[in-house]
Prior knowledge:
Layout: H1 4-14, E1 37-38, H2 40-43, E2 84-88, E3 117-120, E4 130-131, H3 135-143, E5 147-154, H4 163-169, H5 178-190, E6 194-199, H6 206-220, E7 225-229, H7 249-254, E8 257-260, H8 266-278, E9 286-291, H9 303-306, E10 316-320, H10 324-327, H11 332-344, E11 377-379, E12 385-386, E13 389-391, E14 394-397, E15 401-402, E16 416-418, E17 425-429, E18 439-444, E19 450-460, E20 466-472, E21 480-486, E22 489-494, E23 503-508, E24 516-524, E25 530-540, E26 551-562, E27 565-573, E28 581-587, E29 592-598, E30 602-609, E31 615-623, E32 633-638
Parallel strand pairs: 2-3, 2-10, 3-5, 5-6, 6-7, 7-8, 8-9, 9-10
Antiparallel strand pairs: 1-4, 4-5, 11-25, 12-15, 13-14, 16-19, 17-18, 18-25, 19-24, 20-23, 20-25, 21-22, 21-24, 26-27, 27-30, 28-29, 28-31, 31-32
Amino acid sequence: MPTRRQFLVLSSTAALTGLLSETPASAADTAQPYASYWHPATILDWDPSTDRDAKYNRSTVPLARRVVPAGPANAHARPNEARVQALVAYAPTSGNPAQGSLDMNYYATNYWQYIDELVFWGGSASEGLILAPNPTVTDAAHRNGVRVIGNVFLPPTAYGGQIQWVRDFVRREGDRFPVADKMVQVARHYGFDGWFLNQETAGGNTQLANDMRDFIVYMKKSGLRVVWYDAMTDSGSVSWQNALTARNRMFFEQSDEMFLNFWWSTQGLANSAALARQTGRSPYDLASGVDVEASGYNTSVGWASIFPEGRPHVTSLGFYRPEWTFKSATGPADFYARDNRFWVGPNGDPSNTTTTANWKGVAHYVTELTPITTLPFVTNFNTGHGRKFAVNGTVRSAQAWNNLSLQDVLPTWRWSVTGTGTKVTPSLDWDDPYDGGTALKITGTPQSANDVRLFATSLELTGASQFEIVHRTGTGPSRLQAVLRFGATERVLDLGGVSGAWRRSVFPLGEHSGATLTEISLRVLPGAAITAFIGRIGVTNPVMTPPAAPSGVRVEQVSRTNATTASARLTWTRSPGAIRQYRVYKWTGSGRIFLGGTANDAYFVPAIPLNSGETAQIEVEAVSEAFDVSPPARTSVTGTP
């Protein structure tokens, strides 16, 4: 076993440089845009007008407002105290596709309700030290009210770090920091929220430390968030404190948050919280690091040091590499089971986290948040990846895919089912989606009325508001009801009888005008076995006119990928008004083939069925937040040998 000091070094360097051993992405298809990455010298030359990938890397989804639910799931969890920061590596630094790919196997981040900030982890000496998030992650996070932070990794010399890179990073020109200016420009152009600074290169001095502090002050003036990692000290040396101390205080005082290295102690965190208060800061601006890259929920954690029983949280919580749930899984179903256990606990129910296990799930300590605060709200339970893609109940693509830009807001509670005796089992199903790649599936033989709590909301209704649900239950009575809660009051909506095919039901809510809808649940009445699929749930104020079509659709580049398939870069002018996403299709004469989608006004189509000499008609349509669809805008693509 490693000594304490050796393990500290491994946690802070080897673990933090885990991406170095990964193989960079192939450049076989030069049309494929990837997330941007630079060294300090190369970012100075970046210009979005000349970077051919820049327009494909933009996130356009605004940061949603989140609130604590009116009826939180777990009485043990404490709201408005500790926050959760997640450092996630989705792919090697040079291999993050800008807009998804044709592969279901992807870390489709699902439990946004427990995350406050996501750091797009990466960076390596050989590829680049400054990594901007790809827009798919930012789109999904922002839709859920979660900030996204780019990463700067100045590595230890043992992993290729050079002290000159640090000096280049904080180099001044008069009263300016040129690298900081470029990083601000990058974040604003790409639409993410700030930068995580991880300086682990040895060889610094007091002047370099002061320059880094001034760099942070300068960047903060832009309004971007800055998160500091506990490594460099006021002397310029690298010495992980595992706490807030006099040695790293100068960086914390200028940053929005600090991620504390993993080898903290109970007393060290208590002292850190006290020192934070002395500086006029919240102790929740400190994130106590927990390295889960190797063992996930099997990691031994001193939870009581961060979350003492019956008392306020001491600090916030920082997870390093929670995508372990994906990387350790044998397939999608195993990933979802592991992810549920990681965030919710071994009982799989955020309202019941009682267990003798050390890992009780984040839901045991931290109250979930909901971004469902404005109308319209519509979800198709789309998780952002799948085996196929359906549109309004018809499968339009049999191609596996991932694209978090298309992810919907998923259920707040996964899964909380009330009732006595045998209960139904909710799950997310990839075999029979209604719109996107996933539907909600409910199976079982309930012995009592079961309420499946789904969405916490804070929606003020109007006289025009309506509730929409699309479902099917096969043969026999559905025994399915929707339950809408307005604080302590509930309204029960009977969803009808036989539903062999997808069935859309709409219920006016005008009588509740001015009231606030606080929860959406489904009730399954007792009886025989049931298998129900729910494809869509929405609360909207319907509009009479669909969104306008995008205009000026233009083909930037077509690349032959094989004898029957081509890729293409497309751009267009956005439709006026609020648009949730754009969907791209190939028209075949007998129907449409779904090619992909984005919230952006530029999209890389990875695979168009296209023979040599064939001209394909491409259609781009705008989709509103309520899933109203515009007429298509059209262009054509011709296959070349």
